[in-house]
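Recall that a protein's primary structure is simply its ordered list of amino acids. Everything else, from secondary elements to tertiary packing, is in principle encoded there. The following example makes that idea concrete.
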Amino acid sequence: MLRIAAITASTAVVVSGLLLVIGLATAPRTDSYCVAEPQTFPASGVSGWEGEQLENAAVIIRTAEQQGFARDGQIIGVMAAMGESSLRNIDYGDWETSGITNPDGTRTSSIGLFQQQAWWGTAEERMDPATSAGKFFARLARIHGWQQLEPSHAINRVQVNADREHYARFADDAALVVDALSGECRTPTP
């Protein structure tokens, strides 16, 4: 009888330990990282976004902050780039990938994080993540009441996308990325 009790107790301890390890391994991470220190970003990514994508998100967040946008605006900027380029600074766009044309039938000239066409600026400006983000936020700021719009609709007003719901699916991921990259930055010590 004593032997059965010992085996049962040992099994309970092992199972409890195993459940604890599984719980810790599968629990959502609440880590936050300094947006100005990409070398600290998690190699495992944030909600499937990693490496260059997180670095580009950090540029968008910093640009938004510099232009006075709080968390909601930062999320909108990251959502837009997720929906346009998967947070990759690409030198091709809708014409090259899908044959999509402008309403007047001309080829699109979309490039960069936000897939901005030629009327947004030079190719160099549109391919520079901070400059293209700045152009995005400058246009967002000119939309009266953008804060009251659904985020995807606000982005649509800036990007002039055919589907105003296109960006909605990126809302949760964008919020997770913005929150993760909004950790307290260390002050360098002299």
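The radius of gyration is 22 Å. The first helix runs from residue 2 to 26.
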